[in-house]
Fold:
Amino acid sequence: MSKTVKLRKGLNIRLVGGASKVKTDANVPKTISFRPDDFHGMIPKVLVQEGERVKIGDIIFQDKYSDTIKYASPVNGTLKSIVRGAKRKIMEIIISCDQDQAPVEASAIDLASLSNEEVKTKMLAAGLWPFVRQRPLDVVADPSNAPKAIFISAFDSSPLGPDFDFVLKEKGKEFQMGLDAISKLTEGTVHLTVNGTITENTIFSEAKGVQVNSITGKHPAGNVGTQIHHIDPINKGEFVWTINAQDVALIGHYFLTGQYCAKKTIALTGSEVKNPQYIETISGANVSEILNGLIASDNVRVISGNVLTGTKIDKDGHLGFYHNQITIIPEGDQLKFFLTKGWLGPGFDKFSNSRLFPTFLLGKKEFTLDTNLNGEERAFVVTGELEKVFPFDILPMQLVKAAITNDIDGMENLGIYEVAPEDFALCEYVCTSKIDIQDKIRQGLDLIAEECM
Amino acid sequence: MKFLENIVNKMEPKFSKGGKLEKWNPVYESFITLAFTPKHTTKLGSHIRDGVDLKRTMITVILAMVPALLFGIYNTGHWEMVAASGDLNLPFWADQGEKIMKGLAIVLPLIVVSYAVGLTIEFIFALRRGHPLHEGYLVSGILIPLIMPADVPLWMVGVATAFAVIIGKEIFGGTGMNILNIALTARAFLFFAYPTSMSGDKVWMAGEEANVDGFSGATPLGDLASFMTPDAVLQGTPIEAGTNAMEQFTASHSVMDYFWGIMPGSVGETSTFAILIGAAILLFTGVGSFRIIASFFAGGFLMGLILNGIGGPYLDLPSAYHLVLGGFAFGAVFMATDPVTAAQTGVGKLIYGLLGGMVAITIRVLNPAYPEGVMLAILFMNVMAPIIDHYVIQANIKRRLKRVKAA
Structure:
C-alpha cells in the first residue's frame, strides 16, 4: 500500500546556519503568547480576564464562530494583556509565566476504550484541536467535517528546517500514541510520509497503524501539500487534515498522561545566530531570553519559522503556534550599487535558481542571504520559471493569475483546493517580477472560503 | 560608492511623498534603481528572494543581441560600399575601418531614434501612472533597429516606434501586458503604412539613391519570390526562360554562405551565425525558451520539406536554406521567444513554435506579395498564443477531473 514518490522539480536553498544536533533546555520564558493571526481566519473569544490566573491546560479562548475549538494555556501563569490593533482586532494574547511550571495531576486516558467521537471530543475539550489543520484552505480543521485522509510529514525540507528525527528521538512512545489517537479521527487512511533518502530505521519508519510513504526530492518534498498531491490528491468537496509531526507527539503525550503539554524542541538557525542549535521551549514562548547573546549582528530580522513561510517577529517577540524553528538573517535595507552587489554585479553572494547568477558554479556553497527584495515588483514577464520549483500537476502561474483576478471558477478548475500558500513559497522566491505570490494565494483562498465553502 | 549613496540619500526626501519634486518621483526612481538595487525589503511572504530581477533578465537579452548588432553594423557598411561601387564581388573582409564607420553612421541613428522616441513615450506613461520605468523597452529599443532595412528614413522609425509603444503596449497597460511583440508591431506598421520603403529591391542597401545604373540590391528572398513570377531574377540578372532558376540559385550560394550572413537584409537579421551566438547565451542562462526556439526551427524545416514534396519554382528551395535566409533565425531566437507574447505553458510553447515556423515559411513561399513571412507569422502566433494556452490549460483541468472519476 505504501507509496514511493520521486520528485524532479524543486529547489533546496542552501543557507548558512543549520542547527547543530545539540539540544539545550531553555529557562521558563517570561511570557508566552497566542497570535490569533497564526490561526488564519479565526476570531478569538477570550474566556479569561486580564490579570486572572491560569494553569497548564486551562482554556484561554475559543473560536468565536466555532466554539467547540478551544485554545489551552501551555503554562501556569497570569493573563497579562490582550493586545488589540485597528478596529479592536486582537493581535496578541500574552500570558506571563510562573516559575513553577508543574503540570496539573491527571491520569492516562485509555484510548482503546474510547469511540472515535469521544477521541474528537476529548481533543477539542483539551485544547488540542488547533494542532489539526485542514486542506483546502489551510486553516484549523472544522471538526464537523469527515476527512478522507490525514497526512503527517515526517521531515521538514525547507531551508534550515529542523530534523524531526532528532527532535522526536526520545518521544517515540508519545508519537506512536498520537498516531493511534489520530487514526480514530478518520475513516480513511493516516499517511506518514518519510524522507526517502534516509535509510536507517527511525521512529517514523517504524510507526504502526498508519501508511508509511516515502518521498525523495528537493524542497518542497517535505511540505505536506506536495505529499498529498502525489499520494492522495484532494478534489473539490473533499477534506484532508494535516498535523505537524511534533504536534502528533504532543497529542500522544496528552493521551499517555492526561496532561496538556506544549513543550517543543525548536531549531535556532540562520546566518546571524551564534552557535545554531536545538532548544527545548514552550509553544508561543518569548524569544528574547533564548536569543540573549546569540545574535551575531545588529541589523537582523528575527523570523519565527523558516525563511520562506515564517513570520517576522521582534527580538523580544514570541514563537508562532505552528513553528518549530527560529531563523535570524540580516536585513537587506541597504542600497546596493549595481555593479558590485546590485543587479548587474557578479553575484557570487546571491543564490539563484536561474543561470543569470553563478550559483550553479558554486557546488555546495552555503549562502548568507538578506531580506532585500533584489529588485522591484513588476507584472509577470518571465514564464516557465515557477514551474521549475512547483512539483504539482497544477499550472502555478495561471492559478496565481486567477487568484489575482478573483476568478473563482478559474481557481477551482486550476486546483486551488489542493494548495496552501506555503506550497507557493518557492515560486515566490524565484519570481523575477517579485510578486508576493503567497499573499495572492491566501487572498484567493479567502475568497473561496467566503463563496464556496 | 559611498559618495553616490550620499547623493541618493540627500535627493530622496525631495522626490518622496510630500517633497518638492514628488511629481517627478517615477523618473527619479527609474534612474536611481539603475544605479542601485533599491533598499526594498520583503514585507509579505518569503523573507528571502532570488537575486534575479527583470533588469538583469533584460540586460541579458540585450547582451545576446550584441553579436547580431556588431555583425549588422559591419554588414551594413559592406553593402553600402557594394552599392556605391556597383561591384557585387567586393571582398567582404577588406576596408574594415571604413565599413565599420559607414555601418555605424547608418545603424547608430536608428538606435538613437528608437530609444529616444520609445523612452520618451515610456516616461510620459510612467509619470501618468506613477510607477518607475519598466524594463521592457530596453530590449524593444534595440530590437527595432535590428529589424529595420538599412535605408529606412529615420522619421519612419520614429513614427513606427511611437505607434508600437503606444498602440502595441501602453494602451494594454505596459510591460508584461501587451498582446503583440512590440518590435514586430513597429515593423508591421511600416510594412503596411509605407510598403514601398520596406520591401522590393530598393531598400536593402544604404546609399541606393546614388545607385549605379542597372544595379539591384535585392535580398535572396526577393530573388526567390521573383521565381514565382514570369520575370525571375537572380542577383540583378534576369534568368533565361526555360532554365531552372532554383538550380542556379543553389549553385550560386551554399547554405553556409548564407549562414555567415554576408547578404543584404535588415540590420541584425542576416547572420544566422551571430544570431546563434545570441541563442546560446539565451539558452544557457535560461532566459530564452529552448522549446520555442527549437520547435520554431523544426516547424520551418518541416514546412520546407512539405513544400519540396509539392514542388514548384520557389517550393523546391531546399529546406535548410529557409532557416538561414531572411529573418527566420532572428525571429525564432529573439522575437518568438518574447515571454509576454508567446504561449506561456510548456506544451503550448512547443505548439506555438512549431506552428510559427510553419506559418512563416508558408507565407514566405506561397504569398509573393510578402517576401518575408516571419514577421507576420510571429504576430499571427502572438494572437493565437492565448488560444493554444487555453487548450493546454483545459487539458490540465480535465486530467485532474478524471482523477475524481478514477477514484
